[in-house]
Amino acid sequence: MAAPLAPLVLLLLALGRPALSGAQATESAAAAPHRRFEYKYSFKGPHLVQADGTVPFWVHTGNAIPSADQIRITTSLKSQKGSVWTKNKSIFEYWEVEVTFRVTGRGRIGADGLAIWFTEEQGLEGPVFGAADKWNGVGIFFDSFDNDGKKNNPGVIVVGNNGKLLYDHQNDGSMQALASCQRDFRNKPYPVRVKITYYQKTLTVLINNGFTPDKEDYEFCAKVEDMVLPSQGYFGISAATGGLADDHDVLSFLTFQLTEPGKEAPTSDAEIPQKDKEKYQEEFEHFQQELDKKKEEFQREHPDVQGQPADDVFETVSDRELRQIFEGQNRIHLEIKQLNRQLDMILDEQRKYVSAVTEEIAKRGAGSPGQQGQVFQQEIETVVKTQEEVIRQVKEMRSSVTDALSSISGAQHPGAAGVYETTQHFNDIKEHLHVVKRDIEHLVQRNTPSGEKQKCPELPPFPSCLSTMHFFVFVAVQTVLFIGYVMYSLLPWSATCAAKFTVMKNTSVSCLSVWRNDKSMQSILLL
């Protein structure tokens, strides 16, 4: 809207103030510098890496891993360092870079962080977020870990250096920072975007926190005025991990040359010699011919794929959101099915219990006449009624679960209703779940006994296997048998002893001595 209104504003000012000076008009027209994209200082996926694993016009070191759509500066492992730097120095004074990256990790706290550089020399490796210390230029640090314990991390810090200072990593560079802002850039739903502008000796940092897919939703972070940087330098980006680890992925690094409006913007013909242009043109034609050949070969090998759009391979934001909604509905569907199975089990148990009680009533009804039998029958009838009420409540809960399942089944088929219909289905599911919960609580309260608990009927006493009379008879028989056995065992010994005593009564040998010499008799008596 600003561009169409500009001529109208100027016309009104001219009518109101005809004597507007030329200097003021020039100052109002000087709005934004001329931007020109520099491909030799940029990279962006897809098809980011060449066949030999290198990135055109860039060099990577350390643990950096280039891929087709991004460059992973460090993996989520401890003590990792990596960096990516331009091969050639920039030849323009003012510039602007737009960097898109992701910092993801499993823990609530990450380490160490990521840095964007513009330095006079390449800092391929070092202790400052994976790059060299004592740099001559500027570094924009995205520090994840709070080393000084001030609880000001994650944060963005702008640190300048003239090639002589050592970075104070233990204090997070708090005394060396030219500007800073506290922003959380870890584990965001969308990539984090940073726009760094150096124009007329002023460095400005804008950041998109990654909460929305809008690429131009930037907010102010830091600004440093009267900052002098080298006229030529290298662009780079580095990262490092420590005791904690994060994945640091850079999706794109776009560089633009800024030219003041009063100066003529340089053309590409003035920078590229004629020989280089011819060389690049030949390379382009050669690559174009190879690409056409590969396309023809692919079409001959895969005739079924012809005519299909290539955009179907990629997932849009709306498709991803719908997929997440359907996955959540599927999980709810599985939980409710599990609840339905549990209710079926409870219902079967209650039916078995009711049938068992009914059979017990039929058995005891004929054999227990009188007042006591009537009281017992009333108690059993009360139990049966309670169980029937339980069955009825369970059936109602089952019907509620069935309604919830039908609602989910209808919500899983995307139609023209859109997001509002999906929200209505979720509300219905919540309402049914509340009904189920209320019914279960009511059922538990109803079945809880308020007074005396009902006792189960006592079992009749079991008859004893051995009576007292039988026991004494058994003991008497055993005693008689034992005495008879002893007498039977001593009978041969008594006869032998009498015969020997008659023969040897003139010798002073007694029956006791005979018994002492007869070992068999001793063993019999001992038994």
From TrEMBL:
Keyword Transcription (UniProt): no
> Where in the cell does this protein reside?
Endoplasmic reticulum-Golgi intermediate compartment membrane
What biological-process GO terms show up in the record?
endoplasmic reticulum to Golgi vesicle-mediated transport
Keywords attached to this entry: Disulfide bond, Lectin, Membrane, Signal, Transmembrane, Transmembrane helix
Tagged with keyword Cytoplasm: no
Question: How does the record classify its membrane topology?
Answer: Single-pass type I membrane protein
Q: Which GO terms describe its molecular function?
A: D-mannose binding
> Membrane-spanning residues where?
469-491
Q: Which InterPro entries does the UniProt entry name for this protein?
A: ConA-like_dom_sf, Intracellular_Lectin-GPT, Lectin_leg
One Pfam family for this entry, by name?
Answer: Lectin_leg-like
Gene Ontology terms: cellular component: COPII-coated ER to Golgi transport vesicle; endoplasmic reticulum membrane; endoplasmic reticulum-Golgi intermediate compartment membrane; Golgi membrane
The protein's matches in SUPFAM superfamilies, at most eight in alphabetical order, are given as:
Concanavalin A-like lectins/glucanases
Q: What is its main location?
A: endoplasmic reticulum
| Domain annotation L-type lectin-like: ranges | 35-258
**Signal peptide interval:** 1-21
Official protein name in the record:
Lectin, mannose binding 1
Tell me which species this is from.
Answer: Zonotrichia albicollis (White-throated sparrow)
Q: What is the lineage of its organism?
A: Eukaryota, Metazoa, Chordata, Craniata, Vertebrata
